[in-house]
Amino acid sequence: MYLKIGNEIQKIDDYILFFIKKYGQNRCLDIIMPIVTFMGNMGIIWFIISIALILDKPYRIIGNSVILTLIISTIVGEGIMKHIVRRVRPCNKQDYVSNFYLKPTSYSFPSGHTLSSFAAAEMLSIYFIQYKLVFMIIAFLIALSRLYLYVHYPTDVIAGVIVGVLCSKIIFIVLQQGYNSSIQQILINVK
Q1: For the domain that residue 54 is a member of, what is the CATH number?
Q2: What global pTM score does this model have?
């Protein structure tokens, strides 16, 4: 039964990627999407925002919270989940050739770019609700770029969104409730 469900999900994933490739790819996006995905490499866009917040003393705790969220979400996604699931990326199948993006060698599920982007975007949105749409659009574009570049399946991206948002919510609750006051104290005292 589980195998049949897995096969059906794989068919839907393959169809969506085929649809994107057939109807979405064009020269303009072939230039833009690698740039968008680069913004998500190692959470670079989110680290830049965090550093800017850390440098402004009233927002230091928020910047540190975002960095903590990026670290924990990376451990969960890249360090744990990818090695449990071990899903091969669509670009690493033998029938795919890409001329505009290097093929990643790590596993596919979940999308690390998406996971860290939505984790950071959600954490930032908690503190800066007026910019939530901006943060979510950036995270969404990074996630979409992973599909466009054929390095993730749609379910990898969906899992990245879910796990990323859950990570940020859990970290926020832990920090707010003071369950681990030593981490909270470290974040306050980092100068």
Answers
A1: 1.20.144.10
A2: 0.83
